[in-house]
Amino acid sequence: MTETPQKKRKRRGSGRVTMKDVAKLSGVAPITVSRVLSGSDYASPAARDAVMAAVRELGYVPNRMAGGLASVHAPVVPILVPALRNAVFSDIIMGAQEHFFEHGLETLIGNTLYSISKEEHLTRTFLGWSPPAIMITGGTHSQATRDLLSSIEIPVIELMELVEKPLGINVGLSHAGAGYDMTSVLIERGYEDIAFLGTMPDRDLRALKRMEGYQKALRDNGLRGDGFVQFYDQPSTFQLAAQFADIYLENRAKIRAVFCANDVLAVGLLMECQRRGIAVPGELAIAGFNDLSIAESVHPRLTTVHVPRYEMGTKAASMLVEVLSGETLESPIYNVGYEIIEREST
After folding, report:
1. What GO molecular functions are on record for this protein (predicted)?
2. Which of 51, 291, 313, 319 is most buried, by the most CB atoms less than 10 A from its CB?
3. What is the pLDDT of residues 60-85, one digit of tens each?
């Protein structure tokens, strides 16, 4: 009896771009591609440029699950934030983590350091682990990041601000609106010579939107359209804010109140005023943004904008769980809102 030879099964391609595809297009060996993507210094600048050009053209995402590089016992959702040591973002993370934990999900945290290129690198890296979804702060991304997030078939959640054209789910607030409303409150209290203090205008784009709201409120009330604006190209610290006291003393006639882009700057300036004997609010009124716990602990207590950060994280996680469960959201956009908290500093 003659046996009929069995046909060999052909392995179906997954359609996924591989490291070999990148190597072929860039004209280098696969090991060179691996070195470039891992950040190794063993690849020449020319090879690195060629590999990254091929990665962008092909839309390549490293598959970290292939080859047994990781053992995952529960789905992991990456959360990208601009500053881990900032309590604003840690509150959002905690809100999301606690809700995720109840539904068998874990989180992986990435710190972008307010860098669009760093955000792109982390996005590409985290997507390589095939997560069920990804959460990312803000709505301004590099084109490569937007292309990646637009092409993947998992939910994308943009946090912290309302985005004009969100990539998926959007949970946040209007920072321009909050800046406008805080400035309007100061004007209503009789302050007309109002300054704005912020940091990193090229990176902290939400602070920039608060400033835009501040300037619009001035114009709408017939005051100086541009106001008195001071930005420092450094992260916010108490010590940095203290430098503004010198600017105030040189411009007493032009500054009666200061709207600070965040509470760290506001508290730093408040403490420096106390050290120098500048009466708050007698000589200078000070307002902040975020309503951190320290806002109620300083004297005088700080007027600020309350942002429901923990609730924002919880709501974003809740909407994501609904989507992952196959439910349809009533709306993919959720405005968490804000509240102006008036205290003794103004």
Report:
1. DNA binding
2. 313
3. 877 655 544 444 434 899 999 999 88
